[in-house]
Design a protein that fits this description.
Chain A: Pfam families: Glyoxalase (PF00903), Glyoxalase_6 (PF18029). The structure holds two protein chains of two kinds. By secondary structure, chain A is of the alpha+beta class. Chain A is built from seven helices and 18 strands. Classes of the chains: A alpha+beta, B mainly alpha. At the A-B interface, helix 1 and strand 3 of A face helix 1, helix 2, helix 3 and helix 5 of B.
Chain lengths: 301, 168
């Protein structure tokens, strides 16, 4: 099926313009060709830059010197030109695109008549652009070499290494390293009711035990709150060493939701329940079960 | 030494000028505007010859530059007219067969009366015969949006063509 609109096809038919116009334009071209060349472009547009797809959100900057900004973003941030800028009749750049990594950045000269002004004309930035770079320190250095002003020195943050600069056109850039592979902080297992909250190894000689398990398991210790008590660092469940025992024993401390209720049940079931005693980490009571084994109950604060 | 593409452009000027001007005049219909856009085209071409990589200067390339200038012109016009355009200009879509042989003069008058966005889409797609993806690139729209625009532009054209009394 043919499209009736194909009938609109209009091949180029040469038309000789007004000879005075032709003469004037030739003279303008000659003058333009004799003018000193503008700074040669250091980077050219390439197909890869054109192939960068538009993301859902694309920044479109108003800058008070679009040509200078294009050069700056190419030189400082390694941007690649994406097609030819569109130059308006008055010489302003009406639209230009850069590919920066996997994103597109659009920019144009200021068009006050359309309400488009750069940050310098506005008296300051109203937003930051976060640019992810392989080498933050190098990117900040290059930007500053080309006239950017340091806003925040490069430093390490929990979310990665970054620094911030205001570029020569007043736009603020957060130059950041890729966040380290999303590794949510390992949640501390919180013991629930009935879980083992603490393990105490009671021994006759804590120095001997520390040496032995330090060598065998690599345990490190911190002095505990009790006399000759040692907290074993970084084990799960939490554990410690206590001295003064006649023979080595492992004592378990169980977490409970309601210590008073738990102690009542210990007694009810034929065990022995001590008095709840406040500790830095909660209320604790020592108990003996119905066969004589010692254990502790803890209601964490 | 490689020939200076700037001077290649100047050498080509006499041959290319009627082509560029003819292309523009037939599409924008006004002599002054065609002259302005022709001048813009050649001055942009001078700029382009100073860039790396230098373009292969040819008539076809210049007509391509002229096409960019024409689209830019319509884009400016569209921006100026936005808000002034009457809602009634947005015609309901109707895709019934429409096979009337087109009267060239009437086509010109109808195109001139359309909104710049419709005129740009129809010109690129039908007068220049560009495939839709290329039209989309010129208009900086997606292919999908361009197809939708073309549908509306065709409807607007038909409506105007059918109600147009013909050139006076």
């Amino acid at each position: 099926m043919t499209d009736p609109f194909d009938a609109l096809r209009l091949p180029v038919t040469p038309v000789t313009p007004d000879p005075r116009f032709a003469e004037r334009l030739r003279a303008r071209l000659e003058r333009a060709l004799l003018e000193p060349r503008s700074t040669p472009m250091t980077t050219t547009t390439d197909q890869a830059a054109l192939d960068v797809p538009l993301a859902t959100l694309t920044p479109y900057l108003a800058v008070d010197d679009a040509r200078g900004a294009l050069d700056f973003y190419v030189e400082a941030f390694g941007a690649r030109r994406r097609g030819e800028p569109i130059v308006m009749e008055d010489g302003r750049i009406g639209h230009a695109e850069l590919a920066v990594g996997g994103s597109v950045l659009m920019l144009a000269d200021e068009f006050p008549e359309l309400g488009l002004l750069g940050p310098r004309a506005r008296g300051g930035v109203s937003q930051s652009l976060r640019l992810q770079v392989a080498d933050v320190d190098e990117a900040v250095r290059r930007a500053m070499q080309r006239g950017a002003a340091l806003v925040r020195a490069v430093a390490d943050y929990p979310h990665g290494r970054q620094g911030a600069v205001d570029d020569p056109f007043g736009h603020r850039w957060i130059l950041a390293s890729a966040p380290t592979a999303a590794r949510p902080a390992e949640p501390e297992p919180v013991p629930g009711h009935g879980d083992v909250a603490y393990i105490t190894h009671v021994v006759p000689d804590t120095a001997a035990a520390r040496r032995f398990y330090g060598e065998v398991l690599g345990w490190r210790y911190a002095a505990g709150s009790a006399e000759d008590g040692w907290h074993i660092e970084g084990t799960a469940p939490m554990a410690g060493l206590g001295g003064g025992a006649t023979r080595p024993e492992v004592q378990l401390c169980y977490q409970v939701d309601d210590l008073a209720e738990a102690l009542r049940r210990v007694r009810e079931q034929g065990g022995e329940a001590g008095e709840p005693a406040p500790r830095p980490y909660g209320l604790m009571a020592d108990c003996v079960d119905n066969q004589g084994a010692r254990f502790y109950l803890l209601q964490s604060s | 030494m490689a020939p200076d593409p700037g001077f290649a452009l100047l050498e080509l000027y006499d041959a290319a000028l009627p082509q560029v001007y003819g292309y523009l005049l037939a599409r924008c219909g006004r002599r002054e505007l065609a002259e302005d856009l022709t001048a813009e085209t050649f001055l942009a071409a001078v700029d382009a010859t100073r860039r790396v990589p230098t373009p292969a200067v040819s008539v076809a390339w210049l007509v391509g530059v002229a096409r960019h200038k024409l689209v830019d012109h319509w884009r400016r016009q569209e921006r100026e007219q936005r808000g002034l355009r009457l809602a009634s200009q947005d015609c309901p879509e109707h895709d019934d067969p429409w096979g009337a042989a087109l009267d060239a003069l009437r086509v010109e008058a109808v195109l001139a009366a359309l909104g710049p966005h419709h005129r740009a889409a129809l010109t690129l797609r039908y007068l220049d015969g560009l495939p839709v993806p290329q039209v989309a690139k010129h208009l900086r729209r997606t292919v999908h949006a361009t197809e939708a625009l073309l549908t509306r532009a065709r409807a607007a054209f038909r409506h105007a063509y059918d109600t147009e009394e013909g050139p006076r």
